[in-house]
Every structure is written in structure tokens, then in C-alpha cells.
Amino acid sequence: MTRRLILMRHAKSSWDDPTLPDRDRPLNTRGIRSARALGKWLAEKEYLPDTVLCSPATRTRETFEGLKLGVLPVKYPDALYHASTGVILDTLHQHGAGKCVLLLTHNPGCADFADRIVTSPHDHDAFFDYPTGATLVVDLPVESWEDAAFHSGEVVDFIVPRELTD
């Protein structure tokens, strides 16, 4: 059996209020537009998750809400806030459910995880930078999310919001 992972970095956040703690920064206008475009792209491509694992930060929550994917089971594990690659994998092992998981998190862990989860990286120029809103769709040859392992996934698709909004 194959499980599908959609790995997304949050959309562009606002720095308008320098007094806000990092965890509380919202999306800016471009980020809101990007989240909507990414949601439309996911729906058009039929990359629809069964469950969502989302960092509890405001910008990741707002990115998920902006995707407008409907009502889905969502968990907000504290561990995903600026998680390392190993923590992201552990979180997927512990909380992954269904055939397709959308995982929303932050760099640098998100970029490193994207590179390590696949057998070979996507040839997109932005793959290693993993800019805001970057989204990887990868198939993992596992029966259970607990079996997900580094260097096992096959890239299905990769996109950055600028390709959808510019």
C-alpha cells in the first residue's frame, strides 16, 4: 500500500508588528493569496488529505484555513513548531492517519525533511530553499505511517505559490 504525504511550508507571514512573538505572526496579504492558490491547486490536482498535522503557530493555522479544503481532522502538535527533521518524522509516526496527510510546518526543518524523505530530490530550482508556501507531494511505500522512513518517498509533484499567483 502507498501513503501520500503533502508537505507544505506555511505561506508568507507578516512582520508588520515587531512586538509580536514569532509564534503569533499572522499571514500577510501575499500569504493569504498564496494559501488560497495552493488550496485551489491541491483540489484541482485531487491531492486531498484525509488528515492534517499542523504547527500551532498562527501563520501555519492561517495557511491551513486559507487552503479552504473543507472540514478535516486536524491536530496541532506543539512539537511541529520549528521542528527538526527527526521531530517531524516522529510526529508523522505518532499522529499520521488515513491514506493522505497534509503536514504544515516551518523551515529549516521543512526543507531538510523534504530532501530526506525522498529517494531523489525534485529538480525544481526552489526545492532545496523551500520558500514560503512550497509544497511537496510524495508517495511513501508503507502500510502504516509508523513505517515512514527517510529516503523512501517518490516525488509526485512540487510547487511554489509564485507559479500560481504571478
Features:
5 helices; Rossmann fold; alpha/beta; 166 residues; 31% helix
First and last CA, distance: 37 Å
Which percent band covers the strand fraction? 15-25%
What structural category characterises the helix and strand content? alpha/beta
Task: Spell out the helices and strands N to C.
Answer: EHEHEHEHEEH
**Domains (count):** 1
Low-confidence stretches: none
Strand sequence of the main sheet, in spatial order? 3-2-4-1-5-6
Rg from Cα = 14 Å
Tell me roughly what share of residues is in helical segments: 25-40%
Largest sheet: 6 strands, mixed
What is the CATH homologous superfamily assignment? Phosphoglycerate mutase-like
CATH topology: Rossmann fold
Any idea what the CATH architecture is?
Answer: 3-Layer(aba) Sandwich
> What's the CATH class label?
Alpha Beta
Tally of helical runs: 5
What do the pLDDT scores average to?
A: 96
- According to DSSP, the number of beta strands is 6
Principal-axis shape: globular
Pfam families: His_Phos_1 (PF00300)
Protein name: Histidine phosphatase family protein
Binding site for substrate: 59
Organism: Aquicoccus porphyridii
Short account of what is shown:
This protein has 166 residues and is an alpha/beta fold. The chain has helices at residues 29-45, 58-67, 85-95, 109-117, 162-165; strands at residues 3-9, 51-54, 74-75, 100-105, 135-140, 154-159. It has one domain: Phosphoglycerate mutase-like (Rossmann fold), CATH 3.40.50.1240.
